[in-house]
Write a structure and sequence with these properties.
Layout (H helix, E strand, L loop, with lengths): L2 E4 L2 H7 L5 E7 L2 H4 L5 H13 L3 E8 L5 H9 L2 H6 L2 E4 L3 H10 L3 E4 L1 E4 L30 H4 L27 H11 L28 H12 L3
Parallel strand pairs: 2-3, 2-4, 4-5
Antiparallel strand pairs: 1-6
Helix pairs in contact: 4-6
The structure holds iron/sulfur cluster (2 copies).
């Protein structure tokens, strides 16, 4: 799930400065769930832009705007409306914007900002996050992930900014991840683990391992690269 929020309307108008005709693209996936790119938001955007004297040549809502084949197929169904537009305004995460841009030789503007979650959530989303680092250190950290619980992703203890158990970034709402780890280790009688140094992260392990690159997704992408090199 990618989380997005609509950009301020003034920013969108600035992108569209000098352009009259616009085609709108929404997304029924994450963007609809975030209420940034579902049909209701696309129609609202259409109305607001028309009030600013923009001509909306048409719109479409794609099941998953991150899937280039779906984007291309949907746009083909609106070909003349797309061709009549000076640009496309894409109401989705950054991946949907990139996917749209990849399948059409037209100016594409983003309508949303994609918000970092600091790592992936589980299928049943909760507050825990995993950055899929490929070398889990939860054993050292009492089951709290330092890469995601600490705002800086520090691996071996806190920075100097924590105060009263709160993170220096957003002390009003955010606990210091390393304070949480310390407290949990203390409760478990494992404070000696604070002295253990976690090995440096091998960032290459944050990429899919070779044996997983033969999954259907990787195979399809590889084939796409070989058939249509860009
Ligand atoms: S240490 Fe790595 S594998 Fe373990 S929870 Fe954190 S990011 Fe995920
Ligand atoms: S205050 Fe705590 S959570 Fe925030 S960056 Fe420093 S160590 Fe990480």
């Amino acid at each position: 799930m990618l989380v997005s929020e609509l950009k301020p309307f003034e920013d969108i108008l600035e992108y569209l400065d000098g352009e009259k005709n616009v085609f709108l693209v929404g997304c029924k996936g994450c963007a609809e769930a975030c209420q940034t790119g579902g049909e209701a938001q696309v129609l609202e955007m259409k109305q607001k832009l028309e009030e600013e004297e923009k001509a909306i040549t048409g719109y479409t809502i794609i099941d998953f705007a991150c899937e280039k084949a779906l984007v291309a197929s949907k746009l083909r169904g609106h070909w003349s409306e797309v061709m009549d537009a000076d640009s496309l305004l894409v109401m989705s995460c950054g991946i949907g914007v990139q996917a749209t841009s990849a399948v059409i030789d037209k100016v594409v503007h983003p309508a949303c900002n994609t918000i970092s979650l600091g790592g992936a959530v589980g299928t049943w989303p909760g507050s825990e996050r995993c950055r899929q680092c490929g070398d889990c250190v939860l054993d050292l950290t009492a089951g709290i992930c330092p890469l995601t619980a600490c705002t800086k992703g520090l691996l071996n203890g806190p920075c100097g900014g924590a105060k009263d158990g709160k993170c220096e970034f957003e002390p009003e709402v955010r606990d210091c991840g390393w304070h949480l780890i310390y407290e949990r280790l203390k409760k478990l009688g494992q404070l000696d683990k604070m002295r253990e140094i976690a090995p440096l992260k091998d960032r290459s392990k944050m990429q899919p391992p070779k044996h997983l690159r033969s999954t259907i997704m990787w195979a399809l992408e590889q084939e796409e690269r070989e058939v249509a090199p860009r």
